[in-house]
Amino acid sequence: MSAPLLQTRRLGVSFGGVHAVREVDFDLAEGELRCLIGPNGAGKSTFFKMLSGQQLPDRGEVFFRGRRISGLAAHQIARLGIGIKTQVPSVFDGLDVLQNLHLAALRAQPSERAARAEAHAVLERVGLAGRGDARVGELAHGQRQWVELGMILASRPALVLLDEPAAGMTHHEVRKTAELIREINRASTVVVVEHDMAFIRMIAGRVTVFNRGEVLAEGSFDDVVSDPRVRDAYLGNKPIHSSNQETDHA
Amino acid sequence: MTHASSLRSWGLAAAGALCVAGVLLAPQVTDTFALLALTVYLVMAMLALSLAFVWGFGGILCFGQAAFFGLGAYAYAIGAINFGPGVAALLLSVAVPAVFAALLGYFMFYGRISDVYLGVITLAVTLILFNLANSTSGSEYRIGEALLGGFNGIPSIPTLTLPGHDSPLEPEGLFRLVGLLLIAAYVGLRLLLRTRFGQVVVAVRENERRAELLGYDARLHKLLAFALGGAIAGLAGCLYANWGAFVNPGVFSLAQSAQIIIWVIVGGRGTLIGPMIGCVGIQWMVTALGGQQTVDTGLVLGVVLAAFVMLIPRGIAPTVMGWFAPRARPVATGQERVR
Amino acid sequence: MDLAAIFSIEVVGAIATLVLMSIGLAVVFGMMKIINLAHGEFMMLGGYVAILATNRFGVPIWLSMLVLAPLVTGLFGVLVERLLVRHLYGRMIDTMLATWGLSLALVGIATMVFGNTTVGISSPLPGFAIGRFQGSGYTLFVIAVAVAVLAGLWLLFRFTDLGLCARASMQNAAMAAALGANPGRIYTLTFGFGAALSGLGGAVLAPVSGVIPTIGASYIAKAFITVIGGGSAVITGNLAASGLFGAVSQAVTFATTPVFGEVALLVAAVLLIRLLPQGITGRFFKKSI
Q1: Do A103 and B332 touch (CB under 8 A)?
Q2: What ipTM did this prediction achieve?
Q3: Total number of domains constituting chain A
Q4: Disulfide: which of A26, A44, A219, B233 matches A8 by Cβ 3.0-4.6 Å?
Q5: Is chain A in touch with chain C: ≥3 Cβ pairs within 8 A?
Q6: Minimal Cα–Cα distance from B219 to chain A, Å?
Q7: Domain for residue A106, yes or no?
Q8: What pTM does this model have?
Q9: What are the distances in angstroms from CA A242 to CA A222, A224, A238, A247?
Q10: Helix, strand, or coil here: C81?
C-alpha cells in the first residue's frame, strides 16, 4: 500500500468558541477522486481551506507527499503541485481567456512557446475554442468556471482541490463540468467539495461525509447514501436512487 | 512569435528609431530656450512613465512617487558635489531611491497593505521626507561636502560630465541624453512587460489571490515592480537636478505627487505612452497659463482632474486607441466596488 | 507639577485639534466609505466665513464660528454631493481623485478671490497662568468644542431616529432602502453634515493660525491619516487615532521641535497602518459607533 498523497492528522480550527473543524484524520491515495459532503456548517469548506493554505489551522498538521504543508503560504503550496479552484471563481477578469490559460501553463512548461501551445490545447479541451480572445470578465458564469478548470489543467498539478465546481450551473453545464473533472482525474488526484448529490454521483470515487466538524462516514457513494447516520444528519430519509440507475440531473 | 506580436515588435522598433532620430536632430532646429523647456518636459515625462508602470501595470496606487523623484535629485546633488558629476553620481541617484523603494515595498507588501491604506503610507512617507528636507537649514546639516540647505535647497549643482568628455553637458547634450534615456526606459518597460515577470506583474494586479494560487509570489513581484518604478523616478530626479542645477524640498511636496497622478489619470492609466503625453500636455498648459493673470492655474488643473475622473475615466490614450481598434488590449480602470 | 499641568493641557489640546481637524472627514468616511480630499478646503471655507462675518460684517465671533460657518459649509457640502460625489458611489479611489481635483480648484478660486495673504483674527479668550507657566485660554475652548462635538455626535447616532437610519444605511444600504429609508437623501445629508463639521473645525481653528487659501494642505494630510488610522467606527476610531497621534506629536514637539513632532506623527501613522491595516477600530472596539 503506497503512502497517501495527502494526509491530515488531528487537524482542527476554532473561531471563538465555535469548533469549525475538530480533530480530523484524513488520508487520500494517489489517483483518487474524493468528494467531501455534508450539511452547511459541517466544516467541509473550512477543512478544504486548511488543505489549500487559505486558512491557518489551530491544531494538527497537513502532509503532502509526507511533507508538512500546514502553515505554508498559498503560493508555496501551489508550487508543490497543488492546484486550487475557489468557491467564487478566481480568474483574471481583465485579461482574455488565452492569457489566463497561458499564465497557468507557464508554471508547467519550460518556454513561452510551449506554454502558448499548451494554452491553445487546453482551450480546446474545455470547449472554449474560438473564445480565446474574449475577456474573461465578460463570459457567462459557467464559462468562467471552465476557464478556471482550464487553468488548473494547464498547470498540471499532482493534487487538485475544487470548491463547489458545479455551483450555479445549468444542467448541461454540470454534465460538461463532470466530464472535465473526470479528465483532470486522469492525470491528477482530485478532492471536490460539493452539495449537489446528483453531480457527485456522476463523478465520485470515495465520499467523505462531514458533520459538526468531524468525519461522520466515509466510503463509496452507494455505501454513504445508504448509511443511516448520514441519512439522519444530512440526506433525509426519502429513498435515494442508487448509482446504477440512469437518472436525469434535475 | 505570433504574427500580431512580431508586427508589434517591428512597429515598436520603427517608432523607437524615429524617436531617436528626432532626439538627435532636434537641437539643430530649435533655439536654446525652447530646448530647455522641452528638456524639462521630457524629464517629467520620465517621472510620469514611472508611475504609469507602477500604477497602471502594477496596480500599486502610490501617492508619494515624488519621494523617489526627490531622493534621486538630492542623491545626485550630494554625489556630484562630493565626488564629481560623473557616472558614479548618476548611479547613486538611481540606486538610492531604488533601495528605499525596495525597503518601503517590503514593509508594505509583505504586510499585505493595499489600496487606500497603501496610499496613506506612501503619502505619509513623502511628507516625512518633505518635512525632514525642510528642516535641514544650518551648516551642521551636511553630507560630506554638500550642505543640505533646508527649505532653500542645494544650489549650483554641477552638471554631468559624460565619460570620455572633458567638460560638462551643454543644453544640447543634456537634451539628447534625456531624450535617449527616456526612449530607453520606455522601450525597456515595453519589453519587460512581455517577459514572464511582466506578465505576472499584470496578473497580480488583476487578481492577486489567483496569481498566488498559480504559484507566483505576488509580494515579491510587487516589490520588484515598485523598486523599478522608484529607480526610474530617481533617474528623472537626477536629470531634473542637472537641468535646473538646483534642487529644493519642493521635489518631495504633496503638490508634486498630485501632479504626477494627474498626468497618469489624464493621459490614461493602463498604458505607458498615455501618461507621458498627458504630462507634456499638462505641463505645456501650465506654462501657457502661468503667463496670464485671469484664471488661477490650480483651478484649471483641478477642474481638468475632476472632469477626467468623471467623464473620461480611462484617460486620453485608451479612449483614442479605442476609436481605432475597438478590440484592443483590455485596460484596467480599477473601478472597485466598495461594500 | 505646574509644568505637568501645562503639558497635559497642551497634549489634550493637540488631541482636540486633531479631532476637530478630522471629524468631518471621519463622518463621511465612516458612513459612506468615501475619502473627501476637498475636506481641507471645506475647513478653509469655514475659516473664511467666520473671519469675514466677524471682521467685515460685525457678527459676534461666537455666532460666526459656531453657527454661520458650519451652516454655510454644510450647504456647500450638499451642493458638492449632488453635483460631484453622487456620480461616483462605490468607487473609492475615483472619489478620492475627483475630490482632489475639487480641492485644487477651490484653492485656485480662493487665491483668485482672496489673494495670497493670511487673514487673521485675534484669539477672543485671554491666556491664564498656572504657576510660572502661561496657558492659552483658547486651547481650553478648542478642547471644549471637540468634547461637545463628539458627545453630540454620539447622542445623535445613539438616540435619534435619524442617527439610527444613518447607521442602518451605513451597514446595509439596500436593506435600509427596502425598509423605507431613502439612501440617496441620507447620503446627501450625511455628506452635508460632514462638511458642516469640517467648516466648524476650520472656523474654530482659524484664530490659531489664520486662514490662507493654501491652509487646506496642512489640514488634509493629517486628517486623512487620522481617519484611516482610526478605522471605520466614526467616534471611537477618531478619538483613538487622534489620541494616539496627538499625544505622540505633542510629546515629541516638547522634546525637540514642531517639525520633528510632525515627523513623529507621520511615522506613528505608518507604523500603525502596518500593524493594523484596517485602522484601530478594525481590530479593537469593533462594535462601537
Answers
A1: no
A2: 0.85
A3: 1
A4: A26
A5: no
A6: 10
A7: yes
A8: 0.86
A9: 7, 11, 12, 9
A10: helix
Q: Which residues of B touch C87 (CB under 8 A)?
A: 310
Cβ within 8 Å, pair A86-B212? no
Nearest CA among B164, B166, B160, B175 for reference residue B81: B160
User: How far is C150 from C239, CA to CA, in rounded Å?
Assistant: 8
CA–CA–CA angle A223, A36, A75 (5° rounding):
150
When divided into structural domains, chain C yields a total of 1
Asked if the Cβ–Cβ distance from B213 to A78 is below 8 Å, we say yes
Contact call for C104 and B258, based on CB within 8 A = yes
Per the structure, the complete domain to which residue C178 belongs is given by 14-215
Domain containing residue A121 = 92-155
Tens-of-pLDDT digits for all 339 residues of chain B?
Answer: 456 667 777 888 888 888 888 888 888 888 888 889 999 999 999 999 999 999 999 999 998 899 999 999 999 999 999 988 889 999 999 999 999 999 999 989 988 887 778 888 898 888 889 888 888 877 777 878 888 888 888 888 888 888 888 788 888 889 999 999 999 999 999 999 999 999 999 999 999 999 999 999 999 999 999 999 999 999 999 999 999 999 999 999 878 888 899 999 999 988 999 999 999 999 998 888 877 777 888 888 889 889 999 888 888 888 888 777 665 444 443 333 222
Chain B interface residues (partner A, CB cutoff 8 A): 2, 196, 199-200, 202-203, 206-207, 209-218, 327, 330-332
Residue C72 lies in a domain: yes
Residue A52 forms part of a structural domain: no
How far is residue A38's CA from residue A234's CA, in Å, rounded to a whole number?
Answer: 6
How many beta-carbon pairs under 8 angstroms link A with B? 63
Q: How far apart are CA B128 and CA B113, in angstroms?
A: 19
Query: Does residue A105 form part of some domain?
Result: yes
Specify if C107 maps to a domain.
yes
Distance CA B109, CA B111 (A): 5
C-alpha cell at C91: 468607487
**C141 belongs to a structural domain:** yes
Distance between B237 CA and the closest CA of chain A, angstroms = 33
In a domain, A6, yes or no: no
Q: What number of C-beta contacts closer than 8 Å exist between B and C?
A: 137
Residues of chain A positioned with their CB less than 8 A from the CB of B333: none
Distance from the Cα of residue B275 to its chain's centroid = 9
Question: Which residues are within 8 A (CB) of C258 and not within 5 positions of it... i.e. 6 or more apart?
Answer: none
How far is B211 from chain C, CA to nearest CA, in Å?
Answer: 22
